[in-house]
Design a protein that fits this description.
The protein has 480 residues and is α/β, with parallel strands linked by helices. The protein has 3 domains: 129 residues, Roll (Thiol Ester Dehydrase, Chain A), CATH 3.10.129; 160 residues, Medium-chain alcohol dehydrogenases, catalytic domain (Quinone Oxidoreductase, Chain A, domain 1, Alpha-Beta Complex); 166 residues, 3-Layer(aba) Sandwich (Rossmann fold), CATH 3.40.50.720. It is 25% helix and 29% strand. A hairpin with a 5-residue loop joins strand 1 and strand 2. The chain is globular and about 60 Å long.
Length: 480
């Protein structure tokens, strides 16, 4: 008989000897002894076992925190990284954000010494009226359901303008006929959707550098996918392309802003991140505005994100000292240990000013600003004379009132050059940026990380998680 993992029945885990328990704080966790002979005997891989363990850990966390104590849970998840381990491995899950019956969860697996060996993010759908959960419930499912709808196009529309934090009811998910390309047009099946902070501003009906998304219109966003039908001389079926089709499965284009990409050397999703708009944003803001000199100190906020992570690595490549600011000890470990920053400040630790002084003993020469608010204000107090600031984003203020700056006088006193920029206005610099980024990625000097949500229906929850800093690296949605 299968063990009851808090209402989730998975006989396969019983065969592996998985146990489910509650810790001292009442939180569920699962454990298993990872042994090579066990992996071989059941014809499964180490990665497969850990992924299944994380699946169940996240499903249990949703079950325990959910109102829906019975019923099936469907998990769509991806592992951010996996390190080999042997002996006892323990996995825990936690709910980061929840909607009506959709949960955005995080899972972590640790070895017997407590070292993190795997991390996952996923979306969990809880059925309200089911009374039992089978082993097949803990399987990726939403993408398969979307792919089955071969005669329709799934779209996410802006239903209402948010006041404060974005909520899932600000979006409306609809099905429409798949459009037919006319003469000179192509039909593209999107494989990945990019989620980015700028989208929050486009949901507001206020003056900005770009038009607001209209109520009832498809949410804007970058995409990569495959041409499935072409009436355009420059494209043929099978071409992999990047474009801006927004939050939907299919899009039609006359070729404008549509670029062929090579998915044989890097994953297709990389063209939404390190080899796309975020990567070029990092390059332009750092190289053309900050222009760091060897030995100077470069500070970047949101350092573990899609843009910030590239900024710091580029700064190191060009001989500068890179200091990141991120939220949480784990993100700071990643920034220093994996990306090679010289230091990282955890703003959640509660001693930002003291840590900032310690990490920048000679002050700040270049600041790449992604966050704004109190952190930006404090950083102004560490700027050197004739320093430079590239203002890329102000994500801390996208869902709240503007922060009253106290140290703005530093701009005058230190004769600081401060410039905001929109990377789409600097298209002539893109080829130069992409050439350097491609070279450094191929050489292994620039690393990147993605957080992957699965299925278009998961996009609203993943976007809300992005705005709350719950992503690691570039946030994308896998659509196929």
């Amino acid at each position: 008989m299968a063990t009851d993992y808090f209402g989730i029945h998975v006989p396969f885990l019983d065969m592996l000897g998985v146990t489910a328990e509650l810790d001292a704080e009442g939180r569920p966790f699962v454990s298993v002894d990872v042994r090579p002979e066990l992996m071989n005997s059941f014809h499964v891989t180490h990665g497969g076992v850990i992924m299944t363990l994380l699946d169940v850990a996240m499903a249990m966390s949703a079950r325990v925190s959910s109102r829906h104590k019975g019923g099936a849970i469907t998990v769509d998840m991806s592992m951010s990284f996996l390190r080999p381990a042997s002996g006892r491995v323990t996995a825990r899950g936690r709910v980061l954000h929840s909607g009506r019956s959709l949960y955005f969860c995080e899972g972590e697996a640790q070895d017997a010494s407590g070292q993190l060996i795997a991390k996952s993010l996923g979306t969990l759908s809880c059925a309200k009226r089911c009374t039992t959960a089978r082993a097949t419930d803990v399987l990726p499912n939403s993408i398969h359901q979307e792919n089955k709808m071969s005669e329709t196009n799934l779209q996410v529309l802006l239903a209402s303008r948010p006041t404060g934090w974005v909520e899932e009811n600000n979006f409306n998910i609809v099905t429409t006929p798949i459009p037919e390309p006319k003469a000179g047009e192509v039909l593209v099946r999107n494989h990945y959707l990019s989620l980015d902070p700028y989208m929050r501003g486009r949901m507001n009906d206020t003056k900005s550098y770009a038009a607001a998304v209209a109520i009832g219109a498809v949410m804007v966003g970058g995409t990569v996918g495959e041409v499935v039908k072409s009436n355009h001389p420059g494209f043929q079926a099978g071409d992999k392309v990047s474009g801006y089709f927004g939050w939907q499965l299919y899009g039609v284009s006359d070729g404008t802003m549509l670029q062929k990409v090579d998915a044989t050397k890097v994953p297709l999703s990389a063209y939404l991140g390190v080899l796309g708009m975020p990567g070029v944003t990092a390059w332009y803001g750092l190289m053309d505005i900050c222009a760091p000199k060897p030995g100077e100190t470069v500070v970047v906020t949101a350092a573990s994100g899609a843009v910030g992570s590239v900024v710091g690595q580029l700064a190191k490549i060009h001989g500068a000292r890179a200091v990141g600011i991120a939220g949480g000890a784990e993100k700071c470990r990643y920034v220093v240990d994996e990306l090679g920053f010289d230091a990282c400040i955890d703003y959640k630790a509660g001693k930002l000013w003291a840590d900032l002084k310690a990490a920048t003993p000679k002050g700040i020469d270049c600041l790449f600003e992604n966050v704004g608010g109190e952190i930006f204000d404090m950083l102004l107090g560490r700027m050197n004379a004739f320093s430079r600031i590239a203002v890329c984003g102000l994500i801390s203020q996208y869902n709240s009132e503007p922060y009253p700056m106290k140290n703005i006088g530093s701009v005058l006193i230190n004769r600081i050059k401060m410039q905001g920029f929109i990377v789409s206005e600097h298209l002539p610099r893109w080829p130069v940026a992409l050439k350097e980024l491609s070279t450094e990625i191929a050489a292994g000097r620039i690393k990147y990380r993605e957080t992957v949500a699965h299925g278009l229906r998961a996009a609203p929850a993943a976007f809300i998680g992005l705005l709350k800093g719950q992503n690691f690296g570039k946030q994308v949605v896998k659509l196929i």
